[in-house]
Design brief:
The chain is globular, with a radius of gyration of 16 Å. It has helices at about 5-15, 70-80, 95-105, 120-130, 150-155, 160; strands at about 20, 35-40, 55-60, 80-90, 135-140, 165-170. The protein is built from six helices and six strands. Helix content is about 30%, strand content about 25%. The protein has a six-stranded mixed β-sheet with strand order 2-1-3-4-6-5. It is an alpha/beta fold. The protein has a single domain (about 5-170), classed as Rossmann fold (3-Layer(aba) Sandwich), CATH 3.40.50.150. Strand 3 (about 55-60), helix 2 (about 70-80) and strand 4 (about 80-90) form a beta-alpha-beta unit.
């Protein structure tokens, strides 16, 4: 799950107006940034009119969906122009997952018993957010202190390799 202080920071920065939290469960955000509506179903058509929400959030949800492309289409439909979709997914590109896949043929957060349905590659993720503007991207829950190795810092994206979660803010 996205750290609540980071979720709070993102909602304060990009939220505002009328907002929808999708499938993130009991998020316990502070009252001043609480979402106006909650829903747990992103697999079908969302029962909201076009251009209803200023902000939609989905923390650690997208990878559980049977068809995330339908979900992003619905989110695009219900977001107002210039509205923001703030979400997070497991970082399949980190070093731990790459090594597990190399040696065991599986990734840590994508084992058969955890309910994850979708793994995004860089290309499929670009296709997924097509039609949106990427506003912010960041990494959380570091597992390896790769940024402490000076030679690595100079030529690789250590955040991508050492973090378990990646978050995004995209704009309609």
């Amino acid at each position: 799950m996205l750290k609540y202080n980071k979720a709070e920071e993102l909602l304060k920065k990009y939220g505002g107006g009328y907002s929808l939290n999708v499938g993130s469960g009991n998020h316990n955000f502070p009252a001043d940034i609480n979402t106006d509506k909650d829903t747990d179903d992103l697999n079908g058509k969302l029962q909201y009119a076009d251009s209803t929400f200023d902000t939609v959030t989905a923390f650690q949800v997208i990878e559980h969906l049977d068809n995330p492309y339908n979900a992003i289409k619905e989110i695009r439909r219900i977001l107002k122009p210039k509205g923001h979709f703030i979400f997070s997914i497991p970082n399949t590109w980190n070093l731990q997952n790459r090594l597990l896949f190399l040696f065991k043929g599986e990734m840590d957060r994508y084992r058969s018993n955890n309910g994850h349905q979708v793994i995004f590659t860089h290309k499929t993720f670009k296709d997924f957010i097509k039609g949106f503007k990427l506003v912010e991207k960041g990494y959380l829950h570091k597992t390896f202190p790769l940024n402490k190795i000076p030679k690595l810092r100079s030529f690789i994206k250590t955040g991508m390799l050492q973090s378990q979660v990646v978050y995004f803010v995209i704009e309609k």
